[in-house]
Structure formats: structure tokens, C-alpha cells
Amino acid sequence: MELIVLIFLSIGPAVVWVWYFKRYDRKEPEPTGMLARAFVAGLLAVIPAGIIEVPLAQYWGQVLSPGVRLWLMVLGVGLIEELAKFLAVYFTVYKSSHFDGPLDGIIYTTTAAFGFAGAENFLYTYSFGWEIGPLRAIITSLAHASFSGVVGFSLGMLRIGAGSPWAVIGGLLAASLLHGVYNFILFDRGLSPLLALVLVLAVYRYLVVRIRQAQTRS
């Protein structure tokens, strides 16, 4: 019973976040089935990401220079997780006829990111206790979605022939860097966690600007 409650409290907030972002797509809303596909794909993307990250986790607690720790977070966490979420979208919904613009790119990448965050929140809460659950459900979920949404805009532009693969790659690298910096702040005891919150809100604000731009193309 406790496990069922934990699953509900981990996945439930992620679903609420999907609903919140879906309100940006009122003109031509995406089918629920397509959103569910992206969400589940993002949830399952935790598995390959975890397989790659676990061997690297042994280095996180070592005494390394701040620069080394930062790049370890960027390459060993940020790039791995952003690539996993990106591929989840690319191989499940990208080629669908419903995926037809930059706004769709943002909606689907953020949906997959919320699925990823829901699964990750379950694993963290199960391993480290209920206390971290609420904070991760709110802040970490928004972080995952905001970072992935940066890639989503470029991916949507590419889908309609108005963008380039290089823009997608650039978006993926930018998302990975932001994700790595976010993790670095949280794991570095010398930095205030409030900096991570400021970073997430700043990226989310940027994403909202991109959403407004995408809405004019819908």
C-alpha cells in the first residue's frame, strides 16, 4: 500500500504539470494519447540514463576541484539525461503528423521531461525518504521541463523545415549545460540552493518567451 501511495505522489504531480503546460496549447491541443506516449517514453528513459549514470556516481562525492565537479555534472548528468529525454520524444512522437510546429516541440519535450521527473522523483523518494518528495515534485520537475523545452522549440522548428539540425544540437547542449549547473549548485555545499531556484525560474521565463513566439506560428 505504501508503495502505491509513493507511486501516486511521484507521478501525480508530474501529470498535473503536464496539464499546466497543456494550457499553452489551446488553439490546436495535442491528442491525449500522444501526450501519454511522450510521458511514458520520458518515464522509461530513466532506465538507460540510470544505467549510464550509476558507474559515474562514485566520483560525485570525491574531493575534486569545482571546475571538474561542474563538468562532471554537465557531461555525466546533464548531457545524459537531456539526451535521454530528447530521444524519448524523437523516437515516439516526432514523426507524427500531430507534431507540426515549435509549440508542439515544446509541449512534447516538456511532457516527456515530466514523465522522466516523475520516475526520478519516485526513485529518490524511495531511496532517501518522503521529506524530499514535495520539493522535487515542484522544483525538480519544473527544472527538467524547462531545460528540455529549450530543445523542444528548435526541434519543432526543424520538423516544419524552418530550423536546422545545428540549432537542435545547440539547444541540446544548452539544456545539458543548464542542467549540469543546476545539479552542481545543489550538490555543492558552499552554494545556496536558492541559486538553483533562481536558475530554474530564469530558464522557465525564457521558455515562456519561446512559447509566446511559437504561439504566433501556430
Structure description:
The chain has one domain (2-21, 31-215). It has eight helices and no strands. The chain has helices at residues 2-22, 32-44, 46-53, 66-90, 102-128, 133-159, 165-187, 193-215. It is globular. The N and C termini lie far apart (45 Å). The model has no long low-confidence stretch (mean pLDDT 91).
Summary?
The chain has about 220 residues and is mostly helical.
SS class: mainly alpha
Helix content: over 70%
Strand tally = 0
SSE sequence, one letter per element: HHHHHHHH
Task: Provide the β-strand percentage band.
Answer: under 5%
What distance separates the N and C termini?
45 Å
Domains (count):
1
- Put simply, the count of helices is 8
Shape: globular
Main beta sheet strand tally, sense and closure: none
Q: Indicate the mean pLDDT.
A: 91
Low-confidence parts lasting 5 or more residues at pLDDT below 50?
none
Provide the fold topology.
Blueprint: H1 2-22, H2 32-44, H3 46-53, H4 66-90, H5 102-128, H6 133-159, H7 165-187, H8 193-215
Could you name the key traits of this structure?
single chain, mainly alpha, 77% helix
